[in-house]
Design a protein that fits this description.
The protein has 320 residues and is an alpha/beta fold. The chain has helices at residues 8-18, 39-46, 84-88, 133-136, 163-167, 181-191, 207-214, 232-237, 263-272, 283-292, and strands at 54-56, 77-82, 102-106, 114-116, 137-138, 141-142, 155-162, 178-179, 200-204, 226-227, 242-245, 275-278, 296-300, 311-313, 317-319.
């Protein structure tokens, strides 16, 4: 479906109607496209482990992250509650010479490598599965589709689509590059890998490699390569369980309409029920995939079961 650049509202409405999964898994569903990831898909994913080599796909959680305060998003603040100094000075009041250290962290749940939960985005006041947004997410959190419901489900066959290597220069796509369905399918074909029902798809653009070399700049919210709005149909028809990218916003920025903000989110989360990951570190995994020619692997990426949360930090682990 080709969007009309001058008609974001109409394009979003048409895509939402065409690709809606409302009611597909019943009126009480809280998992969305994770329903595609069943026990058989997990067994098949586990069988992909051959060498036993593992990769963390998470960026670090620290004060030197990319956030600049947009919508109150800040980098993590890590504070020690007890230290070795306290122990050495005998300030902890513990017997027989034992001492210890404890710490606390304060951070937005979506400040680094993370999942967008199903309560994260609404369309005209509607949340996932057609529910009224005000009845789903309140000041007490997501009362219906809190991300804790997904905690035991996000593990299965992972597939890397390294579009940066296949369509970019020097392994990187330029900011503003819109990744189309044709780019995704061409990359899969070039890599000799299939993408389908129940897969956890990772799309590497190479932007993270660039900002690590040049500095964060506007990584958090600025121009970026990403998925085109036109991929909404592919995201629906492929029946993937989840998708994640190495960028801040998943979709191409600036967006493809004259005036819009994250229109693909507006369709993919509340209408498809798609789990979306952002700011994943795919660099080491991509190097290994390019070296051994295998682009599928076991992937486990459970969100923290934070009751009522609309997003969650995650440390995804890919095992080959």
């Amino acid at each position: 479906m080709t969007p009309d650049r001058t008609d974001p509202a109409g394009s979003i409405a048409r895509a939402a109607k065409s690709y809606s999964n409302w009611g597909r898994w019943g009126e009480d569903d809280v998992l969305g496209t994770l329903n595609f990831l069943d026990e058989a898909k997990r067994r098949a994913g586990a069988a992909l482990i051959r060498r036993g080599v593992s990769f963390s796909l998470s960026q670090r959680f620290d004060i030197d992250g990319p956030q600049k305060g947009w919508r109150k998003r800040t980098n993590p603040v890590h504070t020690m509650l007890d230290t070795g100094t306290d122990a050495a000075l005998g300030n902890q009041g513990l017997p027989h010479g034992i001492g210890g250290a404890d710490d606390v962290i304060a951070m937005p749940l979506q400040c680094s490598t993370q999942w967008d939960g199903l309560g994260h985005i609404f369309d005209h006041g509607k949340a996932w599965n057609g529910r009224a947004a005000e009845k789903v997410v309140t000041s007490d959190g997501d009362q219906v589709t809190g991300i804790e419901h997904m905690a035991s489900h996000v593990a299965g066959r992972g597939v890397l689509l390294d579009v940066g290597r296949c369509a970019g220069e020097g392994g990187e796509l330029p900011d503003g590059f819109a990744i189309t369905e044709e780019h995704l399918t061409a990359t899969a074909e070039a890599q000799g890998v299939t993408v389908g029902r129940g897969d956890l798809v990772l799309v590497r653009t190479g932007q993270l490699a660039r900002v690590r070399r040049d500095g964060w700049g506007d990584y958090a919210g600025g121009p970026a390569p990403g998925l085109s709005f036109t991929t909404a149909g592919w995201l629906h028809s492929s029946e993937i369980a989840a998708i994640a990218t190495d960028t801040w916003g998943f979709e191409v920025r600036p967006n493809e309409f004259e005036h819009a903000f994250q229109p693909l989110h507006q369709v993919a989360i509340p209408h498809l029920g798609l789990l979306i990951g952002e700011m994943w570190d795919l660099e080491a995994l991509a190097e290994d995939c390019a070296a051994d020619g295998r682009y599928d692997f076991w992937l486990t990426a459970a969100p923290l079961p934070i009751t009522g949360a609309v997003g969650s930090p995650v440390n995804p682990i890919a095992v080959k």
